[in-house]
Amino acid sequence: MKLEDIKNRIDELIQKSKQLIASANYSSNGIGQIDPSVFTGLKTASLSLILKIYDKNHPYYTEIEKVKYYHYSSSAKELQNVLICIKEEVTGGWLFNIKGIVSAEIFADFMEMAEHLIVENFKDPAAVMIGGVLEGHLRQLCIKQYIAIEITKDDKVIAKKADLLNSELATTSVYNKLDQKNITAWLDLRNKAAHGKYEEYSKAQVELMYAGIMDFLTRNPI
To answer: Within its chain, how far is the Cα of 56 from the centroid?
Structure first.
């Protein structure tokens, strides 16, 4: 789902919540009564959207999930307030910035472990780990640029291979052709390590791979 699609969907749900609140019939005690079936549909749609951009454990999901009293306008107002918060977060870029920070911290930890493995002469697991960080970073760059990271084949959704992600990122000028060629070589070395072809590369090449990918990560943040 593209960022613009997310924003449009949030606006649609906020508009529906406004319409639902406006349709309330107020009793003498000031309590607004709304159509519970309409509220149910709005709540379900809101939860579905949150699952697409966050996850089931996110506070926004749990906050909406616990909203009850489907026939009260106050419940619709609670739901609307959460949707407005989501809109502000997405519009302000916080959603993707936070994901980028978390991913960067995880990648840094793996690169630190890989460096230790190289120092201890364990070039093979280091190569696999460094290559895994590179592939993960390519996927995050694709998400940042709204490039699909999955394809549908025979009615099954499968992840795109790292080589294809590399090609698409270079084609859209996220980085240049030299970077693309370097990444192709690094992925090839990673694949050799993952398939036990340990004699086809040296520790020195893994060290160069480590240094090159560190430079690439720095120049192309997520």
So the answer is: 14
